[in-house]
Amino acid sequence: MRNVSNHMDLQVWQLSIAFVTKIYRVTTKFPNSEIYGLTNQIRRSAVSIPSNIAEGAARGSTKEYIRFLYIALGSTAEIETQLLIAKNLKYIEDTNLNIEIKNIKGKLINLIYSLKKKTI
Question: Looking at the whole model, is its pTM more than 0.85?
Answer without folding.
Answer: yes
